[in-house]
Amino acid sequence: MNSFFRYFSDIFHGVKSLLIGMSVTGRYFFSPGQIVTQQYPENRKNLQMFERFKGEVIMLHDINNQHRCNGCGICENNCPNGSIEIISARITGEDGKSKRIIDKHIYHLGMCTFCGLCVKNCPSNALGFGNEFEHAVFDRSKLNKVLNQPGSSIIKGVE
Amino acid sequence: MKEIINLPVSKIEEEEYHINMGPQHPSTHGVLRLLVSLQGEIVKSLKPHCGYIHRGIEKMCEKDTYPQVIHLTDRMDYLSAHINNHAVCLLVEKALEIEVPERVKYIRTIMDELTRIQSHQLWWSSFGMDLGGLTCFFYGLRDREMILDIWEETTGSRFLQSYNCPGGVMQDIHPNFQKKVHAFIKTFKKKIKDYDRILSGNVIFENRSQGVGILSKEDAISYGVTGPSGRGSGWSCDIRKIEPYSMYGQVHFNEVLRYECDTYSRYMVRMQEMHESMNIIEQLIDNIPAGDHSAKMKAVIKLPAGEYFQRVESARGELDVYVVSDGNKTPYRMKFRTPSFTNLGVLDHISRGMKIADLVAIGASLDLVIPDIDR
Fold first, then answer.
1. Which one, of B215, B252, B253, B221, lies nearest residue B236 by Cα?
2. Are residues A14 and A58 in the same domain?
């Protein structure tokens, strides 16, 4: 007799627990509250990333196409996996002294792990993180980027 | 094959046979291959085959400087990335005898507990999914998204933050950080009740988890099963209590212990730990002291020659870092004792005699992360 009652009470409690669970899913089904998913490819135009978002390493240029990089190579030394290559050149400055400038700041996006050490350790704050995150390309060589824009020069006073 | 077909049915049931569970099986949560020896549906023995995602992180650490090591530790146990970073930073600070600012300790502790909550949320989601409740997966990921947003705003990354650095943290917290954490805790306290209603009390879930995968306290100690899995067997092994680091010595929280020793008890430990983590965050979030977000460090960090050791409590158990330094800027040897690897060792012992469907539940209750096993 006891086992008979237990059999039915087990069924009752089992069905009850299932109904409790289904009431939760049912509630979300009929009143979803807020919709948390984003319609990603459609909302590309007004998609706003957080300002600190680490999408890619960029070199900060001002409106006169000038940057703050003097090619010291500290970012290259700090990079754990060799994503940054610095090719510097020497020019003769206005005062007649030989001066080092950046020729090419090569950044291998495909190797970058976004640890942020280059940006953190740059002594002249020349580097920063960009918000671009759609990096898919058809050819791997397109992931090797030159960060200093063509024709750019160093801001005066940053040496 | 032909010989098996020709055998009578009763003979086939007696015959022991082997199947590979994984490396692509979804319930192994990665590339773990379990060579299961079965008789009928009963698991006779089990051999884990590791190494599918071995990257040689310990060896790579030997050529990296100490700040560079941090980003590799992210990639071991990616679900508790922040705690792994914390371990290495604590070790470097201990070796150099640097006192970090109070603000850093607060930030790190809050971040650690957020990591623990999101790790347990994802574990809950996948645990439900492994046992057939796909809804859990969506609900868990929906709530986890709030923590990822908090991280993205402060650290710049959603998943592998590399936020700690020796001496402090990379950037100060975002002005919205405290507001968002408050909003998260307020929301999640309501949402976690749904978790209990959907899964914890569910009759199917209870039948599949209660009495399955018994791990006694003695076995937990001798196999070294730490973290929530060990505490589900009643073994008090919380490093936050045993050797408090950062702010853990000064906050009040309970070490969650359960004594049923089965899959359900390991499940309940993690559910309770989420409450405790929220409790810790609530004690700290309003009292973050002003100050610098990093101590002054030299440009090149060189550890004095010697051996160093640091333990932390990651979301899966005890994470130990051991460094032998010869006085250079790179470690001579770096060894990680990762919790998932030791927890995997007990899988054979507790799944013997269980059905193969129970193996999925047991594996999920140990909360294995495969890159943490292979490193």
1. B221
2. no
Q: Residues with Cβ < 8 Å from B352, sequence gap 6 or more?
A: B43, B44, B45, B46
- Can you say whether residue B251 is alpha, beta or left, with left for phi > 0 and alpha for psi between -120 and 50 degrees? beta
The full length of chain B comes to 375
Residue A159 lies in a domain: no
User: Of how many residues is chain A composed?
Assistant: 159
Q: Are B140 and B129 in contact (CB under 8 A)?
A: no
**Residue B136 sits at the chain A interface (C-beta within 8 Å):** no
Residue in A18, A80, A116 closest to B170 by CB: A116
For chain B, the structural domain boundaries read: 53-374
CATH class of B53-374: mainly alpha
Q: Count the neighbouring beta carbons within 10 Å of the beta carbon of residue A159.
A: 12
| The token pair that represents B266 in the structure block | 């390991």
Record the tokens describing residue B149, joined without a space.
């947003």
Mean pLDDT of A132-137: 87
User: What ipTM did this prediction achieve?
Assistant: 0.83
Task: Indicate whether A118 and A55 sit together in one domain.
Answer: yes
- Put simply, the answer to whether B156 touches A24 (Cβ < 8 Å) is no
HEC string of chain A?
CHHHHHHHHHHHHHHHHHHHHHHHHHHHHHCCCCCCCCCCHHHCCCCCCCCCCCCEEEECCCCCCEECCCCCCHHHHHCCCCCEEEEEEEEECCCCCEEEEEEEEEEEHHHCCCCCHHHHHCCCCCEEEECCCCCCCCCHHHHEEECCCCCCEECCCCC
Distance from CA of A147 to the nearest CA of B (A): 20
- For residues A135-159, average pLDDT: 81
pLDDT along chain B (375 residues), means of 10: 58 74 74 86 86 87 88 87 90 88 89 90 88 84 88 87 86 87 89 85 84 87 89 88 87 88 89 90 88 82 88 89 89 89 88 86 86 85
pLDDT digits (tens, 9 = 90+) for A53-80: 888 888 888 888 888 888 888 888 888 8
Rounded Cα–Cα distance for residues B43 and B17 (Å): 10
Residues of chain B positioned with their CB less than 8 A from the CB of A12: none
Q: What is the pLDDT of residue B3?
A: 59
